[in-house]
Amino acid sequence: MKDKKAFPHELVGEEVCVVKSTQKENVGITGIIVDETKSTLRIAHNDKIKILLKGTLQLKLIKSGIIVDGKILIKRPEERLK
């Protein structure tokens, strides 16, 4: 299931897996989102923080199984939640 409309809820604290990315080394990264900016996500992965560009990836939310295209997330979190 791919969500094409605006994604309304908070991502910090969500466990995610990168299922597709233009940067092949990022595919398969699994972890918890610890911070979000307008164009990046910080994911805790193997005791390190990975900074990923939202516009280059697709994420699978582990809990719900939803796959989200990072391009629809490119906004400040507070703007997206309005």
Structure description:
By secondary structure, the chain is mainly beta. It has a single domain (2-80), classed as Ribonuclease P/MRP, subunit p29 (SH3 type barrels). The protein is 5% helix and 44% strand. The chain has one helix at residues 77-80; strands spanning 2-3, 15-21, 30-36, 40-45, 48-53, 57-61, 67-69. A hairpin with a 3-residue loop joins strand 3 (30-36) and strand 4 (40-45). The model has no long low-confidence stretch (mean pLDDT 87).
What are the salient characteristics of this protein?
single chain; 82 residues; SH3 type barrels; seven-stranded mixed sheet; 1 helix; globular
Put the structure in a nutshell.
By secondary structure, the protein is mainly β. The protein is built from one helix and seven strands. 5% of the residues lie in helices and 44% in strands.
Would you spell out the secondary-structure blueprint of this structure?
Elements (H helix, E strand, L loop, with lengths): L1 E2 L11 E7 L8 E7 L3 E6 L2 E6 L3 E5 L5 E3 L7 H4 L2
Parallel strand pairs: 1-7
Antiparallel strand pairs: 2-3, 2-6, 3-4, 4-5, 6-7
> Which percent band covers the strand fraction?
35-45%
Distance between the termini: 23 Å
Secondary-structure element series: EEEEEEEH
This entry's quaternary arrangement is: single chain
CATH architecture: Roll
The CATH class turns out to be Mainly Beta
- Tell me the CATH superfamily: Ribonuclease P/MRP, subunit p29
CATH fold type: SH3 type barrels
Whole-number count of domains: 1
